[in-house]
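User: Is it possible to get a 3D structure for a protein together with its bound compound? The compound here is heme C. I've pasted both below.
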Amino acid sequence: MRHKARHTRLISCAAIVWTLIVLVQARGTTQGSPGFPGGPLPGITNLEFSEFRLGVDDFMEVETAEEGLGPAFNGTSCAVCHNLPSIGGGGVILEVRAGYRDALGGADGLNPAGDTLIHMLSTPSHSCQPSIPEDANVIAHRAPIPLFGAGLVEAIPDETILALADPDDRNRDGVSGRAGIVVDVATGGTRVGRFGWKSQHATLLAFGADAYRNEMGITNELFPNEFSFGISAAQMKLCDPLPDPEDRRDPVTRRRGIDNFESFMKFLAPVARSHADEQTREGERVFSAIGCATCHVPALDTGASAHPAFHRKRVELFSDLLLHDVGTSDDIRQGGAAADELRTPALWGLRFRRPLLHDGSAATITDAIERHAGEAALARRGFGQLPAQTKDTLLAFLRSL
Ligand code: HEC
Ligand code: HEC
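Assistant: Yes, that's possible. Here is the predicted structure of the complex:
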């Protein structure tokens, strides 16, 4: 108990320090502040800023079994995985997925529903801990994705992403990006997915609700049932007798935890580049010249919005948000993505991201580039043929992101 009290004190202390940092950041620039990622977008209202702060608190809140954590889970708070270089960022924890490889080389899910997530942790007495079936023949890992600038990504219209798609490679550049079409559980609408390594979600509300249930075992209005692979519903009730959904509306504000996560992520500013000089500008030209920018599209624009912070903003994310086969994928079918497809990751904030690639298997930027094949084979070859000095120039640009 004493340990728990100290823990709680440490957390509230961290929350106060965080709030102060965020307050100082409140007047950042459109593309974030170079000093300290994690502040709010400029131009949000005072009310939105208070929702952002509520969101930070909920994002960091460590949950217990009494509050709904589990029975199977991957982390006790969002922030345990999204904390580098600050709250809302990436992290070093890798998730586990598993499946059955079929005749086509892709993996079917572990059950008819297509589930592939294997939780790493469970609440005592651990009788709801899922295990990897003996005959599963695909194991995959997934690294966390930083959330900086996610609200701007959400505000990019579906049509903008669809306009970049070239599924049959009609322009014959060897690159055939496809939009990942998903049904958004938040609205029921058919949308272009853009969040997750497989573009499996289109909105932050849906991703946050999915994460609350799947990462933390906290059921909510969008994901109302507990899930722990291979464990019966009856056993699950014994492990976690709390009524579902566990994420209840606050009696005063009427907001759910998932609303607070959404606000935090929506109003979180992107990471600004560290600097721009002659070398980084030259590096960016090389990046385009060898074909990296075909998929890592330097900027997309948000659409018309009643909110000035999201109205026709240039989003310098370095991604087309499309699905591609670059030869590295994990054989898992998910959302609208085929087994061999992954969404082009955004490269903003790259200097703070390690490990790299969806499964965290690349330590350096050069490693990550050298792993590109498939649709990125031409660009990869272009990189390999660069004179040493030009390669350094390109890497200097990438390290400034
Ligand atoms: C156990 C670690 C872990 C925890 C806990 C966790 N996440 Fe994540 N998060 C991940 C991983 C891994 C991914 C990439 C998953 C994928 O695409 O397969 C991810 C991706 C995301 C994305 C997609 C971002 C993008 O731009 O594509 C969002 C949004 C997100 N998480 C929100 C949350 C929220 C909200 C919570 C808390 C309710 C949370 N996460 C808890 C590990 C975690
Ligand atoms: C055909 C589309 C495509 C092209 C062309 C392409 N990439 Fe990528 N890139 C991807 C995809 C998809 C991934 C994710 C692969 C994975 O995670 O396994 C990726 C991952 C990366 C990563 C790791 C990012 C992270 O957060 O883990 C870096 C760095 C990167 N690319 C840089 C480059 C550079 C530099 C070039 C040019 C030499 C290039 N890419 C060309 C699609 C592409």
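Residues 74-75, 78, 80-82, 93, 95, 142-145, 147, 150, 195-197, 204, 207-208, 211-212, 215-216, 261, 265 surround heme C (ligand 1) (CB under 6 Å). The two ends are 44 Å apart (CA to CA).
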